[in-house]
Amino acid sequence: MEKGLLIVLSGPSGGGKGTLLAEVKKRGFDFALSISVTTRQPRTGETNGINYFFKTKAEALAMRENDEFLESEEVFGEIYGTSKKFVMDNLNSGKSVVLEIDTKGALKVKEKMPNAVMIFIVPKDLETLHSRLTGRGTETAEQIAKRFGKAKEEIAKAVHYDYLLINDKIEECATNFIEIINVEKLKTSRDKNKTLIESFR
Ligand code: 5GP
Predict the structure, then answer these.
(1) Averaged over 35-50, what is the pLDDT?
(2) Less CB within 10 Å around the terminal CB: N or C of the chain?
(3) Using CA atoms, how far apart are residues 29 and 51, in angstroms rounded to an integer?
């Protein structure tokens, strides 16, 4: 059975990750979006088990103790983590998995799973980023300033990723995303391709 691709998608809040994933899904790219665990409070409109698994600090720490996370990080003083079981079960059943995580966690995943496809998405310029962060209307001015600072730090880490997507026109961005996936599947390092090469011996 061909394993699914592990795709790590990072980018600053308001950078367009959600819109991009909705667009590629619409175009038929089948993937499971990893639902992270977080200790932060749900925002208006967020649902447990859909946006995140909302846990208490004690619950998240216990999961960390039991080695249930592929990676976990503290972001804005809250714990965020990726469920190892969710990721491995999907990959082993042949389904691609997308992780929408911060750069620190992403680089840890790449270390553990070097075949992961690392994609970073940015808005076209700093002004656009700022207006997107302000435009969401769900956070205070102080929270926005904090996120803007973090966003700039995050973008500096994009150099460690395999691919950079510029979210100017979402259609173009989605086309590029799908092209990346197609090219990644052709890599000689993929299990299916290694097996094929072997079969010619
Ligand atoms: P938010 O609170 O806005 O949903 O997410 C804040 C930050 O945490 C974002 O940069 C998001 O990508 C990151 N994040 C969400 N889930 C995870 C996770 O499981 N692991 C890590 N390392 N970061 C995460």
Answers:
(1) 95
(2) C
(3) 20
- Write the burial class of residue 131 (CB in 10 Å: 0-12 exposed, 13-18 middle, 19+ buried): exposed
Pocket test for ligand 1, best of 75, 107, 154 (most atoms within 8 A of CB): 75
Calculate the average pLDDT of the chain. Answer: 93
**Structure-block tokens of residue 98:** 């997308």
Rounded-to-5 percentages of helix, strand, coil across the chain? 45, 20, 30
Using the atom order of ligand 1, give the atom closest to the CA of residue 51. Answer: 4
pTM of the model: 0.90
The whole-number pLDDT of residue 30 equals 95
* Best residue for ligand 1 mutational test, from 85, 101, 110, 133 (most atoms within 8 Å of Cβ): 101
Longest Cα–Cα distance in the chain: 63
Q: What percent of the chain has pLDDT over 70?
A: 99
